[in-house]
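Supplementary Note 3. Input sequence used for the single-chain structure prediction.
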Amino acid sequence: KKNSIFAIVSVFLLIGLDQLVKFLITSHMALSDTIPVIKNVFHITYIQNRGAAWGSLQGKRILLLAVTLLVLIFLVYFYIKMLKMDKYKDLRILFLFVFSGAVGNMIDRIRLGYVIDMFDFRLINFPVFNVADIYVTCSMIILLILILFKSYIKIVQPALYCSSIVFDCVLEKGVTNQLNIPLPFSPVALL
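The predicted structure, written as discrete structure tokens, is reproduced below.
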């Protein structure tokens, strides 16, 4: 019960931070405005992303919402299984971050029809991203490290398999893989 309360409070705080940053950006900046933090290296730039990661799948709002919903159901299911076993605390924490990031961007897509992005690394010409994207991306990097160094592949293998099935279904509907990332992780990039 204590772990459930921790999870719920954490998710609300993480989503709240994401939404607060987006609110501050939209209330203090006009679309396409940019504020150099470190000129030509890192800017705060307000953009509206109507697609997924790296601007792919532009205008595919319903598809992105459907994939996000499937990922959220999957995360809740596996989180509850791990919680009942009282194991894999590090994976449960990662799931909370991925869940929060997915919900943060889903709120934007439902409410606005696009996702608000603001962090603009220009030095390496990286796509503009937001707090929710940081949650998802960092969690996936840490998950890969855990798989490599903590022998978690047996636990996450069903998750990776389900993930690739979802993405295969997306591909069968005529959507091309513009993400150029490993197939099992592709649905997470759609968040």
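The radius of gyration is 17 Å. The longest strand covers residues 42-49.
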